[in-house]
From TrEMBL:
Any Pfam family matching the protein: HTH_30
Name assigned to this protein: DNA-binding transcriptional regulator, PucR family
Protein species of origin: Salisediminibacterium halotolerans
Example GO molecular function: DNA binding
PucR C-terminal helix-turn-helix domain residues: 233-289
InterPro entries: CdaR-like_regulators, PucR_C-HTH_dom, PucR_C-HTH_sf
Amino acid sequence: MYERLKTRYAHAFADSESIAREHRLTLQLPDGSECTLDRRQLSEAETAVLSQLFDESAPSNVIDVGDQSMYNWLINSQEPPASINTFFPLRFIYIHIPAGKEDMNGAEEALPEIFPGTVSLFWLSAKDGVLIQTIDEEFDETPSLASIVDTLASDLYTKSAICAGSPVSSLHEMYDRFQLEIHLYETVKPWFNKKAAFSEQEMTLFYLIKFIPEDALQTSMGWIRDVKNDSSLTDSVRTYLESNLNISSAAKQQFMHRNTMQYRVDKFIEKTGIDIKQFPNAAVVYILLSVLDLQKHDHD
């Protein structure tokens, strides 16, 4: 059956990882295997016939009926599962496991432990999953995403990447937010070998960086030319910016005296001429430091 399909629709066969999800037609074959075609290469009639003959499938690793319903709603625009109304507010967690299906069983056990309040977990592909976490009175945002990536590595013995979405409070908001966040997630995936943990805001930032022309990026990087090779200074300044320009908080995170952090912030201002104590300047520098981080990984 597979060979007949491949012969008839050779022009449309595709690797599921090579095309955007909205263009994938994934078919469940009688022997239990799956194949993926590019919808753009098929007519509407061909798509309809194939979907009727072979059930257009969600990934076979969906945990249970409730999660299958969630997948069908968010991916196939079917009716939302009624049970989700009891879990607001909540957020999406997007997980990338490069090793793929061989580590999914371990992930299904480890992820709900790492993210208490997990109400749903389903797989978008052999390497990408979505977890839905309710935000209740027991919700704890203390563990950093980077530390969670490390925990997954110790539990699953494989490298992974995590993107955390923002809280949503209604069905309509939930559906729209998923469509936005999954688009951002797909965009930042090529950077997972450089950065393995993203908040939604970081995904948005890196999404914007992706579309800044290279010559404009290089010109803008001139602002931090005199400090870009001083990693201890730029790391401290990044922590300061991420601490809402709070010297004491940044110093605590970097395990240094407050005066040392103040000295480094002043040193950065002196060397670059950019007063990062002012928010507009701080925002620009944060973008430049993010670009610098990517460039450093490119040279590693």
